[in-house]
Amino acid sequence: MEGEHKQRNWMVEPPTDRPVRVYADGIYDLFHFGHARSLEQAKKSFSNTYLLVGCCNDEVTHRLKGKTVMTDQERYESLRHCKWVDEVIPDAPWVLSQEFIDKHRIDYVAHDSLPYADASGAGQDVYEFVKSIGRFKETKRTDGISTSDIIMRIVKDYNEYVMRNLDRGYSRKDLGVSYVKEKRLRVNMGLKKLREKVKKQQEKIQTVAKTAGMNHNLWVENADRLVAGFLEMFEEGCHKMEQLKANANRRGLANGNDEDDDEYYYDYSTEDEEDYSNGAEEIASA
Predict the structure, then answer these.
(1) What does the pLDDT look like over 211-234, one tens digit per residue?
(2) pTM for this prediction
(3) Which of 22, 34, 168, 238 has the most Cβ atoms closer than 10 angstroms to its Cβ?
C-alpha cells in the first residue's frame, strides 16, 4: 500500500534551464482571496515559475458543475488582474489530456490533493491522469472561504440585501420581486427597525434604573418620560406599518399578483420575540 501511495505521488524532475511552467485551473467564480492564495502557492512552487491558469467557459461549467454568478468573460478578466498569474487560458478543458499538456508545454499541474470528482464521467478524479504521469504539484486550500460560502451568506440574509438594493435605486423587477413582496418587505424591515429603537429605549431605561437607588425622584421622572416616549413612538409606528401593509395587500389583490411566499419575508426568530416580550414586561413593570 505504501509503495502504491509513493507511486501515485511521484514527480518528474523540473527543468533547470528555463522557467518551470506550472498550470492551475478552476472556475474562479466570485474570485476571492482563497483563489488568490492557491495561485500564489502555485507561482511560488519553484524559484522560477511561469504560471498558466485555465478557466472553463460557461457552457462546460453550467453543464458539469452548475450555474455561475459571473460570466466566463468576467471570470477570465478577474484572473488577468491577479498579480500571480502570467497567462490566462480561456475555454480550459474539464479534464486534462496529454495533448493539452503538450500544446501548452506544461511541466506541472497545481491543485490541492483531495480527489476532485469528475462530473464528465471520464474517471473518478479530474487530476488522476496528471498524477499518474508525475506532473501533479500539491497546493493547500484556504479554510473558511469559498464561492459557495459567499453565496450562502447572501441567501441567508436575502431580505436585507433586497431592501439594500431597493433603497439604492434598483426596481423590484430588477430583483425579481413582486409588488406585494416588495411592500411586505418594506413593512417588515420597518418593524425590525422599530424593534431596534424599542431595545434602545429599554437600554436607556435600564441605565437609569441603575441610578435609582441614588436618586429615586430622578429615576421616576426619567422612567415616566422614557416610557411615554416609547409608547407614543410604538403606537405611531404600528399604525403606519399596518396601514401600509393593508394598502399593499389591497393593491396586490386588485392586480391579481398576490404571490404569498413567506420564505421571502422577514422571519423573526423565537429568540427575538422572547426578547421583545420580555422587554415589554420590563417596561410595564417600570
Answers:
(1) 655 555 555 566 666 656 665 666
(2) 0.66
(3) 22
